[in-house]
Amino acid sequence: KKPAGAPDKSLARAVTKVGIVGAGLMASQMALLFARQLKVPVVLTDIDQARVDKGVGYVHTEIDKLAAKGRVSPDGANRLKALVSGSLDKAAFSDADFVIEAVFEELGVKQTVFAEVEEHVSAECVLATNTSSLSITDMASKLKHPERVVGFHFFNPVAVMPLLEIVRADRTDDATLATAFAVGKALRKSSVLVKDAPAFVVNRLLTRFMGEVVQSIDEGTPFEVADNALEPLGLPMSPLVLLQLVGAPVALHVAETMNRAFPDRFGVSDNMKKFVAAGKNAVWTWDASGKPSVDPEVQAL
Ligand code: 3HC
Q: Which residues belong to any copy of the 3-hydroxyacyl-CoA dehydrogenase C-terminal domain (predicted)?
């Protein structure tokens, strides 16, 4: 069934090579998914060789795990590994048809990255962004070809979560959007077209949900109580575990975006600001039996 709002699929362009800007966790998970499902070369870039090597190393390790589980054959694993490479030079994108960025969540950084990529790719190459909350229209505004920019928002863990939010910006053209839907289908995701609004749909809900839990801790609710209170709802993860999975810096960034957009509805947790400023990814840790405790270094902040 054609997703609501998707253009005719005959408008989609073929994708024979994928470029990924950023080689962090989301980017590396995406690289594996693109290589596995699209079976095309995927190039990861980042600002230094150590980051590029780490990203490619992550993909190779995950492929080894798939092979150990019998999900891919030994030959298949080697073929998959050969599809994923790293480069420091965006010229490696010159023959890519689809480039997606997953760099730091700041508009200026993303605009600069897209402007650099545009120097190397054809006028038809799709520029997709995995931003969690920023405006796709703003991201495209300084480009020569803003019509090729589209939001392509995955959820963590990328291999497992079925949803993909596809975001049409003010000037995104039908061929770009059709290509995004075709890629989403090839990745076996359930794609939905969402408006270019702060945090789109899912993060708007999740931010409120996780934010209220963390702010209730700021206000004095013991964290074990907050962590367990929602268990009877049968969620796959408690909000605090989810916060750790998403990563506190990302969650804080989205919360701040939402706070700017809707100050009457979205607050920003003081605790979260404190521990992210101290370079911590999460306050709470869980032992093997699932018992949570507060990171003593965070408690001392
Ligand atoms: N990477 C790859 N695969 C993973 C994984 C990971 N990090 N974590 C789990 N998996 C796989 C496992 O290998 C397993 O696969 P298999 O069945 O093929 O062997 C499968 O997922 C199920 O794993 P488990 O049995 O270990 O665990 P669960 O049944 O508890 O499921 C979960 C794990 C899917 C992560 C589940 O807890 C869940 O759905 N949690 C909620 C996740 C969520 O809400 N994510 C959205 C975050 S918001 C976001 O990302 C947006 C961003 O912009 C901030």
A: 200-281
